[in-house]
Amino acid sequence: MALFDLPLDQLRGYRSASVEPSDFDAFWTKTLQETREHDLDARFEPVETRLRTVQVYDVTFAGFGGHPVKGWLTVPAATDEPLPTVVEFVGYGGGRALPHMHLLWASAGFAHFVMDTRGQGSTWGGGDTPDPVGSAPAVPGFMTRGVEDPETYYYRRLFTDGVRAVEAARAHPLTDASRTAAVGASQGGGITIAVGGLVPDLVAIAPDVPFLCDFPRATTLTDRQPYREIGTYLKTHRGRTEPVLRTLSYFDGVHFAARGRAPALFSAALEDQTCPPSTVFAAFNAWAHEDKTIEVYDFNDHEGGGPHQQAVQLRWLPARF
Question: In 136-295, which residue ranges form alpha helices assigned H by DSSP?
Answer without folding.
Answer: 154-170, 187-198, 215-221, 227-236, 241-249, 253-257, 277-286
